[in-house]
Specification:
The two termini are about 35 Å apart. By secondary structure, the protein is an alpha/beta fold. Helices cover about 40% and strands about 15% of the residues. It has 2 domains: about 45-60 and about 305-400, Alpha-Beta Complex (Aspartate Aminotransferase, domain 1); about 75-300, Aspartate Aminotransferase, domain 2 (3-Layer(aba) Sandwich). It has a 7-stranded mixed sheet with strand order 4-12-11-10-7-5-6, with helices on both faces. The chain has a 4-stranded mixed sheet with strand order 1-2-3-15. It has a 4-stranded antiparallel sheet with strand order 13-14-17-16, with helices on one face. The protein is built from 14 helices and 17 strands. The protein has helices at about 5-15, 50-55, 60-75, 85-100, 110-130, 145-150, 175-180, 205-220, 240-245, 270-275, 290-300, 305-330, 350-360, 385-400; strands at about 30-35, 35-40, 45, 100-105, 135, 170, 185-190, 195, 200-205, 220-225, 250-255, 265-270, 335-340, 340-345, 365, 365, 370-375. Bound molecules: pyridoxal-5'-phosphate. Pyridoxal-5'-phosphate binds near residues 228 and 229.
Length: about 400
């Protein structure tokens, strides 16, 4: 039977030509404006997901488009055998705003974590001779390469893939005793998401991060914050570590950094700078001029105090709305968790159903596992649009 619409024809072709790894919602988006995405047939969807924490400034943000166009006109790629202007300018901005010493650019979150873990091993071997192991946390998510999956603390991601590299240990988030128990002399780094994302939106407590910092200082273990999902303004500070006031040794960034173009970054302190040699790492595309230019606009915009305070204010508004949903539906919403504009709604066993019903009502959210519905709206969303999305969520919860 012939497809009924252009969108259907694309969905059919996808099944014929792409390797079937994704479980997608049946929408083919061809345009975006503000916090709305439009399919070919002209239907508007309210986006409460930002391409999974990517489109921080929504869609069609003029200064971002203009900066990208201008860079495309100049040169789109040169490789890291040479220097390029946007990459150096972006590094300067990140160093200035973070207080870290140096930056390494990559293309994705998994790659940023790979680099951080590789740097930690260099440190462990070059400084301590025999350290190579990692401590990560249950429920974490750090990427889809074999090493980042290995340190991901969720069994569903390990199925049919082991054995993973040796020397990976796990603790429980916000349980410092579990960390002390899991520590060995071989551990070179502890890696943690300040707010666990894919695992179901679990923020770290301040006490936990302070204790991790103390343990790492006492043993000269590196502390890595994976801010791929929770960084870049998402929780109301440019970097998540600034919210907690706990400074790690390495920060990994991606997703929102490029505002929609693929770029990741690894921020490192003097410990890493001191042991790094030319040739230790490289990337063909990392810090590509077009992606780096896009990221320059993102950093300039999101780092402004006015912008960040608006995120915090809208975050508080969203928290109140979700709290009201939880009290309206105590049997259906078990808990809400989050910070800033990063929230999870625990609806035991029904997250997929909620996400699908929201989609039918043209609001984009996602089920990060079978229990948790995740909200990661563009940081530029208005309170009116947030409210609209929440009211639709209210209807969906009432219908469950
Ligand atoms: C905390 C965290 N780290 C790493 C990654 C992997 O990023 P990417 O998909 O860009 O490789 C993700 C992706 O969801 C993430 O949420």
């Amino acid at each position: 039977m012939a497809p009924e619409s252009f969108s259907e024809s694309i969905i059919e072709k996808e099944a014929s030509y792409l390797l079937g790894t994704y479980q997608r919602m049946p929408a083919v988006f061809v345009r975006g404006e503000g916090v709305y995405l439009f399919d070919f047939e002209g239907n508007a969807y309210l986006d409460l997901l930002s391409g999974i924490s990517v489109n921080l400034l929504g869609y069609g943000y003029k200064p971002l488009k203009e900066a990208i166009h201008a860079e495309v006109e100049r040169v789109i790629h040169t490789s890291n055998l040479f220097y390029n202007v946007p990459q150096v300018e972006l590094a300067e901005k990140l160093v200035r705003h973070s207080g870290f010493l140096r930056v390494f650019f990559v293309n994705s979150g998994a790659e940023a974590n790979e680099v951080a873990l590789k740097m930690a091993r260099f440190y462990g071997k070059r400084k301590h001779g025999k350290r190579y192991a990692y401590l990560a946390f249950r429920r974490s998510f750090h990427g889809r390469t074999l090493l980042t999956l290995g340190i991901t603390g969720q069994e569903k991601f390990h199925k049919d893939l082991g054995p993973f590299p040796p020397g990976i240990f796990f603790g429980d988030l916000n349980d410092i005793e579990s960390v002390e128990k899991a520590l060995t002399d071989e551990i070179c780094a502890i890696i943690v998401e300040p707010v666990q994302g894919e695992g179901g939106i679990y923020p770290c407590t301040l006490e936990f991060l302070v204790a991790l910092r103390r343990i790492c200082d006492e043993r000269d273990i590196l502390l890595i914050f994976d801010e791929v999902q929770c960084g870049m303004g998402r929780i109301g500070t440019l970097f998540a570590f600034q919210h907690f006031g706990v400074r790690p040794d390495i920060v990994t960034l991606a997703k929102g950094l490029g505002g929609g173009l693929p770029i990741g970054a690894v921020l490192v302190n003097e410990k890493i700078v001191e042991i790094t040699h030319r040739g230790d790492h490289g990337s063909t595309f990392g810090g590509n001029p077009v992606a780096a230019r896009s990221a320059c606009v993102i950093v300039d915009t999101v780092s402004q105090e006015e912008f960040l305070s608006s995120v915090r204010k809208k975050g508080e508004f969203l928290r109140e709305c979700l709290e009201s949903l939880r009290s309206s539906f105590p049997g259906k919403v078990k808990e809400i968790r989050g910070l800033g504009l990063m929230w999870g709604l625990e609806v035991p066993k029904r997250a997929k159903e909620v996400a699908e019903k929201m989609f039918m009502r043209k609001v984009l959210v996602n089920a990060c596992n079978e229990d948790v519905v995740r909200l990661l709206p563009p940081l530029v969303i208005s309170e009116a649009d947030l409210y609209r999305g929440i009211e639709i969520l209210r209807e969906v919860l009432a219908d469950l």
